[in-house]
Design a protein that fits this description.
Layout lengths: L5 H9 L4 H11 L2 H31 L6 H10 L3 H11 L8 H4 L4 H5 L3 H9 L8 H14 L1 H4 L3 H8 L7 H8 L2 H4 L2 H15 L11 H16 L7 H6 L2 H6 L7
Helix pairs in contact: 4-5, 9-11, 11-14, 12-14
Protein name: BACK domain-containing protein
Pfam families: BACK (PF07707)
Organism: Gonium pectorale
Length: 256
């Protein structure tokens, strides 16, 4: 038998019972023409596999939704598929849990709670995160920790410190955060929040990232609603006229 065509090669391989027989058979039967056929078959197979891979990735990207974005994000990062990872990350940034039952029914809760700590931190630190306040960031952290409280409670303080822009919160917001049950129950989280509160009272300027663009937009929207209702509060007029000034007010840096 001469292995001189892809069909011959496939026929031979189909009848092989183990690797030793395959190696011996190829060494005995393959002619130069047979080796050329093997190269042709390999190239053809690789091309088909790559084409199938692209189709699968396109299908996954087209299927992205709030109901599966975290699961697909975890998969894409695990197998290092950058385009799919970037597409799913963009959707994840607008689908964080907010503690609203109606929204929870539509989100990928299992995929979110299975995020690794570094994945959660990466998402929550992003400038592209779509939240209306830092309290929504805290609710996302609480939801993730609450899925496995015994395992994850020890890292909650570090996540709050690293992911929440405490320096961009005012006294009223910090007081509300300090009263959250998850803060009260954790001495580590209490220390992080108390430090931000004391620094705000003292008028210190801690090193911290500026206000998130999405939070600035939410404050500007609230300002417009307040003025329309004739009930502007504090710096509402400034927020409406120049919402970017809210970002100017926020402290810059790496972390609190």
């Amino acid at each position: 038998m001469q292995l001189s065509s892809p069909v011959d090669v496939l026929t031979f391989i189909a009848g092989v019972r183990d690797c030793a027989e395959l190696v011996a058979g190829l060494a005995h039967f393959c002619t130069p023409a047979g080796l050329t056929a093997l190269e042709s078959l390999a190239a053809s197979t690789v091309g088909r596999v790559l084409a199938a891979r692209q189709l699968c990735l396109a299908a996954l990207e087209a299927s992205l939704s709030p109901a599966n974005c975290f699961t697909i994000y975890r998969f894409a990062e695990a197998v290092c598929i950058a385009p799919l990872c970037q597409a799913s990350e963009r959707l994840c940034l607008s689908c964080m849990p907010k503690g609203e039952p109606e929204a929870a029914a539509e989100m990928d809760e299992q995929g979110f709670t299975e995020l690794r700590p570094e994945q959660l931190q990466h998402l929550l630190q992003s400038e592209g995160l779509q939240v209306s306040s830092e309290m929504e960031v805290f609710r996302a952290i609480s939801a993730w920790v609450g899925a496995r409280p015994q395992e994850r409670a020890p890292v909650m303080g570090e996540l709050v410190r690293a992911c929440m822009r405490l320096g961009a919160m005012d006294l009223r917001q910090l007081e509300a955060l300090d009263q959250e049950p998850q803060v009260v129950a954790s001495s580590d989280v209490t220390r992080v929040v108390a430090q931000a509160y004391v620094m705000r009272i003292m008028g210190c300027v801690p090193a911290g990232p500026r206000m998130r663009p999405s939070v600035a937009r939410a404050m500007a929207k609230e300002a417009r609603i307040g003025e329309a209702a004739g009930a502007g509060v504090g710096m509402v007029g400034v927020a409406e006229a120049q919402p970017e000034e809210y970002e100017e007010m926020a402290w810059e840096g790496e972390g609190l």
